[in-house]
Amino acid sequence: MTVTIRRLHRGHPASTAGHYAGSQALAASGAAGAQQRSNNPDSNGEEDGSAMYTPFPKHVPYPNTEQSSELMNELFIFGFTIIASATQFLHLYRSVWWLPNSYNRQAVNFYLIDWDLAIFIDIMASRRLLYCCILRCIDANCPEAYADVSKKVAKYTFLAFVLASFVGCGAQIYQKASYIHLFVLSYPLVLYLMIFGLNLEQFLRTIVDTEPNCINGMPLHSCSSSAGAIRTEIDALRTDFNARCKQIVFTSLLNAYYAGFVPCVLASKHLYYNNFWTTQHLACVFIGGLTMCVTYCFPMRYCDVFHRAALHLGQWQRVSNRSNSVPTYTWSKTNIYPHGTYVRHMGEVYRSVGYCTSAVPANTSHYRFYAIFSNHIVIYLTLFAVQMLLIVLQLAIFALTPEWQNVLSVAFLLLINFFTLFRIARDYFIARRIYANEPLYLGMRMQ
């Protein structure tokens, strides 16, 4: 991938100084001029820094790594949810068929299972996978001129089918139980309306394009020399990131709710089951589903876009004790400032700690964006630690349990969690290898 580099700012002639020493020399020359002007009684010693040269970061070329498609990710999440639901039913309805005087010849008391509830859970878990398959069929067979109309018709037709299925299963459950069961089943749907409103696309898809500059759920980065354009891009990326975080939490809670919580709550009150095993199963399903959704919604290419934008955004650090010999510029929203520049904004003095800084001083959202994505490998490392801790805990439980249903439950979840751990570890080690040479591209190390 060819990456262009813009060395200068505000239309100044090209220069070959691409390393940190060159940028510091240019900033120092501008600072010396400002210091001379500060000694002039006709000058107040504060400029907006528009005459400074600002080198722009050169991004590390990113390799073409294979990423899982939306269909494969939805299939993976569906399989995880169904297995989690089946093993929770196994915790509830296992039998003692191995005893000599047992009247049951099957390992599970199938006659105690509410199959309408099981169908309801299956439909809820498979809705996104089925909708993704429908979209794939439309893209493969429908002419491009009719694709958008066909997708809208398919979306509302599929929603009507899902709603009719929910109503049918709910009616059957209500005849056998009470309205409390309906409230338990419909509570996440009411919560969805409170979080996402009437936007139905988030109910059928995990990743939805939130901005025009987005292709197949992947935002694009534009290396701009305009500070306003950079901040606009940051706001769009931040909106997309927050939407994905909201979707991750909701999807993880929804899958854990229907796969682990609903079967226990709606079980017969005369049914005896082990609360410890059902509770730990619910917790493991939620944590495993959360890390799985994070790896799905935040792939390496997505985080690389945010990292590149963070390099252009930069960060301001408030300075409490500043030497009077260091010149201070008046911050301007149209300027991009090099590393080490001091500016004054709203009565406070700030120092640029990024390679180039276009952020607004004292803007907490810009501060958090740069703090997270300037070194986004920490995200992979945190996920790796959480997933490893979950697997170690499950291995300990697996080694200590003597009961067959618990062994099957933990073993199935371990297989899926090992695959998630592989994806996280792959992303982490690839990203660490790529960005290890980034200071050579930037020509500096951030202080």
TrEMBL record:
<feature type="transmembrane region" description="Helical">
    <location>
        <begin position="407"/>
        <end position="425"/>
    </location>
</feature>
<dbReference type="GO" id="GO:0016020">
    <property type="term" value="C:membrane"/>
</dbReference>
<comment type="similarity">
    <text>Belongs to the TMEM39 family.</text>
</comment>
<protein>
    <submittedName>
        <fullName>AGAP011817-PA</fullName>
    </submittedName>
</protein>
<feature type="transmembrane region" description="Helical">
    <location>
        <begin position="108"/>
        <end position="126"/>
    </location>
</feature>
<dbReference type="InterPro" id="IPR019397">
    <property type="entry name" value="Uncharacterised_TMEM39"/>
</dbReference>
<keyword id="KW-1133">Transmembrane helix</keyword>
<feature type="transmembrane region" description="Helical">
    <location>
        <begin position="75"/>
        <end position="96"/>
    </location>
</feature>
<feature type="transmembrane region" description="Helical">
    <location>
        <begin position="248"/>
        <end position="268"/>
    </location>
</feature>
<feature type="transmembrane region" description="Helical">
    <location>
        <begin position="180"/>
        <end position="200"/>
    </location>
</feature>
<feature type="transmembrane region" description="Helical">
    <location>
        <begin position="377"/>
        <end position="401"/>
    </location>
</feature>
<feature type="transmembrane region" description="Helical">
    <location>
        <begin position="280"/>
        <end position="298"/>
    </location>
</feature>
<feature type="region of interest" description="Disordered">
    <location>
        <begin position="31"/>
        <end position="50"/>
    </location>
</feature>
<keyword id="KW-0812">Transmembrane</keyword>
<feature type="transmembrane region" description="Helical">
    <location>
        <begin position="156"/>
        <end position="174"/>
    </location>
</feature>
<keyword id="KW-0472">Membrane</keyword>
<dbReference type="Pfam" id="PF10271">
    <property type="entry name" value="Tmp39"/>
</dbReference>
